[in-house]
Amino acid sequence: MAMASLARRKAYLLTRNLSNSSSDVLKYSPTVTSFSRGFASGSEENDVVVIGGGPGGYVAAIKAAQLGLKTACIEKRGALGGTCLNVGCIPSKALLHSSHMYHEAQHSFANHGVKFSSVEIDLPAMMAQKDKAVSNLTRGIEGLFKKNKVSYVKGYGKLISPSEVSVETPDGGNTVVKGKHIIIATGSDVKSLPGITIDEKRIVSSTGALALTEIPKKLVVIGAGYIGLEMGSVWGRLGSEITVVEFAADIVPTMDGEIRKQFQRSLEKQGMKFMLKTKVVGVDSSADGVKLTLEPAAGGDQTILEADVVLVSAGRSPYTGGLGLDKIGVETDKIGRILVNERFSTNVPGVYAIGDVIPGPMLAHKAEEDGVACVEFIAGKTGHVDYDKVPGVVYTHPEVASVGKTEEQVKALGVEYRVGKFPFMANSRAKAIDNAEGLVKILAEKETDKILGVHIMAPNAGELIHEAAIALQYDAASEDIARVCHAHPTMSEAVKEAAMATYDKPIHI
Ligand SMILES: Cc1cc2nc3c(=O)[nH]c(=O)nc-3n(C[C@H](O)[C@H](O)[C@H](O)COP(=O)(O)OP(=O)(O)OC[C@H]3O[C@@H](n4cnc5c(N)ncnc54)[C@H](O)[C@@H]3O)c2cc1C
Ligand SMILES: NC(=O)c1ccc[n+]([C@@H]2O[C@H](COP(=O)([O-])OP(=O)(O)OC[C@H]3O[C@@H](n4cnc5c(N)ncnc54)[C@H](O)[C@@H]3O)[C@@H](O)[C@H]2O)c1
What are the disulfide bonds (predicted)? Predict the structure, then answer.
């Protein structure tokens, strides 16, 4: 039975288009992928060597080992888990949760009849809980490496040939790690802006914003993207006055327009101020604070904005510094991303790249999927990642999650479509817990009812979105979701009702 289902799954995977990914993804299609190449340089110790121990790299290393490949992973930061675990997803979610609890205690508990005389913030304790979560998880990956027999090489890796990585070890030494297949998973780094020097004290990147020792009175955030809105939420809830300066006309420019408008209104209600279509042209920091010179994006009169701390969150760049790409001739695009084909192979045979360092969404779960698919290809199996179906979540309150296309994208494709919506105001669980802001929006092809995109704004949108992600992956119709029995009372019922609204009528509104 198990064998039969495995065979069916293999046959199914093979029928799927492995390169059905979106516009800017995996464009490079060199004719170089060779899985039976001859190896010129010396005797190889490893089948796979991964440079970078982030979600892309460590997952690739574990999966490679599970597939029976002798694997080593080189990491320079002294801890596994990459940006995500050390200075990204995990510490930010820890602080988002802690600050949300404080905010709820101040503003919502009394509505539920829970009263107390005063609530205080103990910032060092809050930071310590975040640090504990990070260190437990990074140590957990070391444990997984041991369990799966992945060699963990600490140090800075540099490609010296397509099958050799020279590693500067923490004790100042040097060692060469050899591999038949090398996977570059070096991730991304903060993108600084011209004329702005990040000191991680008053002019901070996300890394500094995760470790402030005092709550700033005024925090100016440059860039209304994922990091700006999440870290702005953290410090805003703890008492900072937040002003977000955004170059574009909208916050999170990639989000569905209708959802984005509601999201912005919600953040404004929480006290976040937005200066859209505005650029920062200069930053002057003195002992007393920081002065930012602003200008309308289209040009015009300058104004001055004062802050105690400025967060620079205007995007991230692929991290390839000192990696030796030039030495072995790995091709990159204009903004330094490594170009790969649909098997994650670069133009240099035997050298692959995955995660934030290649085109595609800069997300941890996408990096992990890349990693698994890449080593499956290396092992002669079939890997699969569809960048059109990677969910995205902004972990504010409410959260905003989406998968598939926005209404703007569907319109641009010229596809005839239907929209089904359901507000949480009409969802019994949301009303019961007094947390009913937001909605579910489903876009489906008019002719076939096939789901094209799902957008959710809700307290737990990041969990709810996976029902939609599965539906999209299986090319489901909105009616498929609507006819699945959903437990009551749950927030998930709003997804079912929005699906009913897409092809027919919802019940509860
Ligand atoms: C504040 C913040 C919050 C985020 N929150 C989320 C979130 O909630 N959800 C989400 O999906 N994504 C989130 N992200 C994005 C996520 O962190 C990245 O998409 C993800 O970490 C990319 O994984 P990666 O393995 O490609 O690279 P990375 O995680 O950047 O890992 C690369 C690793 O390679 C190492 N390295 C680099 N060069 C070398 C070298 N030459 N030798 C040895 N080692 C090297 C680096 O030290 C690093 O540890 C967040 C990012 C930030 C900054
Ligand atoms: N919840 C999550 O999944 C999560 C959380 C944090 C970070 N991330 C990832 O990390 C990456 C980096 O996050 P980010 O928020 O820095 O980037 P982002 O791309 O999400 O947002 C950057 C914002 O800065 C704006 N901007 C760019 N230059 C500007 C300028 N000069 N002045 C004013 N605004 C400017 C852009 O228009 C954009 O809105 C993202 O790609 C995201 O995928 C994900």
Answer: 84-89
With a threshold of 0.85, tell me whether the complex ipTM lies above it. Answer: yes
Is pLDDT at 35 greater than 90 in this prediction?
no
Domains within the chain, CATH numbers bracketed = 19-83+131-189+317-389 (3.50.50.60), 203-314 (3.50.50.60), 398-503 (3.30.390.30)
Amino acid 177 reads V
* % of the chain surpassing 90 pLDDT: 90
CA dist 220 → 77, 229, 455 (Å):
29, 11, 28
Quickly state the pLDDT bin for 9 (edges 50, 70, 90).
very low
- Strand order through the sheet with 392-394: 392-394, 399-404, 451-458, 439-445, 417-423
Say if residue 12's pLDDT is above 90.
Answer: no
Residues with catalytic roles: 488
Place of tokens 């507000």: 423
CB 238 within 8 A of CB 121: yes
**CA-based nearest residue to 353, from 67, 33, 56:** 56
**Closest by CA position to 267, among listed 487, 103, 474, 451:** 103
Tell me, what DSSP letter sits at residue 221? E
**For the CA of 280, the nearest atom of ligand 2:** 32
Backbone angles phi, psi at 231, to 5 degrees: -70, -30
What is residue 195's predicted lDDT score, i.e. its pLDDT?
87
Residues in Cβ contact with 253 at an 8 Å cutoff, skipping those fewer than 6 apart = none
DSSP state of 338: B
Query: What is the rounded distance in angstroms from the CA atom of residue 62 to the CA atom of residue 189?
Result: 24
From atom 34 of ligand 1, which residue's Cα is the shortest distance away? 52
456 beta partners: 401, 440
For the full predicted model, state whether its pTM sits above 0.90.
Answer: yes
Residue linked to tokens 């998973």: 185
Ligand 1 neighbours, Cβ below 6 Å, are: 51-57, 74-77, 82-84, 88-89, 92, 156-157, 185-188, 206, 227, 319, 322-323, 355-356, 362-365, 367, 395
Length of the chain: 509
183-213 pLDDT per residue, tens: 999 999 999 899 899 999 999 999 999 999 9
Q: How far is the CA of 84 from the centre of ligand 1 (A)?
A: 5
